[in-house]
């Protein structure tokens, strides 16, 4: 019994030492500016906190120094008992920027793939907007099948027509599989175009050589 207690004590001491080193170690945090997308800022901040294993009850400690403008104002207007509650701080900031259910619904419905963005990244973004739309609407339980149906339908409507037709024919069961197939199709198309251009270039070189 005594040895077990000693082992637990050593484990606790090791854990505390690790946490102490972790919090002492600086890591890069995004800093909000007046031009930033606050939704993207919050998303990046949460990712940094998560990968650095910072408990959520410590997130406000790291968040507040990164705020400015309306976000800082939203924090300052919170009740004293809510100042250390990350979810309440986050909700106050998003509300200040009017990022409510309607805003996320519009973001979801209008989401188009950006130049340089993979289909996987685009579908992930759509899924994130859908999740936030549901959450801010008070809907906490959406079955994965319904989620995929809505995301797939939106994606099909936004894809280039030829790609949309081709992917509909393959009947992808999930949004993730749709994204993988779309990326594979794009890579294959670029490879074919590259070979085609290479053949044309070599043909022109041969023509010029014959003329000489």
Measured by DSSP, the beta-strand proportion falls in under 5%
Number of strands: 0
What are the secondary-structure elements, in order, as H or E?
A: HHHHHHHHHH
For the terminal residues, how far apart are their CA atoms? 95 Å
Global morphology? globular
Taking all Cα atoms into account, the compactness measure Rg is 25 Å
Query: How many helical elements?
Result: 10
The biggest beta sheet, please? none
Low-confidence stretches: none
Helical amount: over 70%
Structural class by helix and strand composition:
mainly alpha
Q: On the 0-100 scale, what is the average pLDDT?
A: 81
What does this structure look like?
- The protein is an all-alpha fold.
- Helix content is 71%, strand content 0%.
- The protein has ten helices and no strands.
- α4 crosses α5, α6 packs antiparallel against α7 and α7 packs antiparallel against α10.
- The protein starts with a helix and ends with a helix.
SSE topology:
Layout: H1 2-24, H2 38-51, H3 59-63, H4 69-76, H5 86-96, H6 101-110, H7 119-136, H8 144-158, H9 161-170, H10 175-211
Helix pairs in contact: 4-5, 6-7, 7-10, 8-9
Give the structure's gist in a few sentences.
Residues 105-186 form the SCAN box domain. The protein has 10 helices and no strands.
Identify the notable features of this structure and list them briefly.
212 residues, 0% strand, globular
């Amino acid at each position: 019994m005594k040895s077990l207690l000693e082992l637990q004590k050593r484990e606790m001491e090791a854990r505390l030492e690790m946490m102490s080193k972790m919090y002492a170690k600086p890591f890069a945090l995004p800093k909000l500016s007046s031009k930033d997308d606050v939704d993207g800022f919050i998303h990046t901040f949460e990712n940094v906190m998560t990968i650095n294993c910072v408990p959520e009850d410590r997130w406000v400690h790291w968040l507040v120094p990164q705020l400015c403008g309306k976000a800082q104002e939203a924090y300052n207007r919170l009740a004293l008992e809510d100042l250390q509650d990350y979810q309440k701080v986050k909700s106050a900031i998003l509300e200040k920027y009017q990022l409510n259910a309607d805003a996320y619904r519009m973001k979801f419905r209008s989401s188009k793939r950006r130049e340089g963005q993979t289909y996987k990244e685009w579908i992930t973004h759509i899924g994130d907007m859908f999740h936030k739309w549901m959450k801010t609407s008070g809907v906490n339980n959406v079955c994965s099948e319904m989620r995929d149906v809505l995301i797939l339908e939106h994606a099909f409507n936004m894809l280039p027509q030829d790609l949309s037709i081709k992917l509909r024919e393959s009947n992808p069961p999930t949004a993730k599989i749709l994204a993988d197939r779309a990326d594979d199709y794009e890579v294959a198309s670029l490879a074919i175009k590259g070979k085609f251009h290479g053949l044309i270039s070599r043909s022109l070189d041969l023509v010029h050589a014959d003329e000489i």
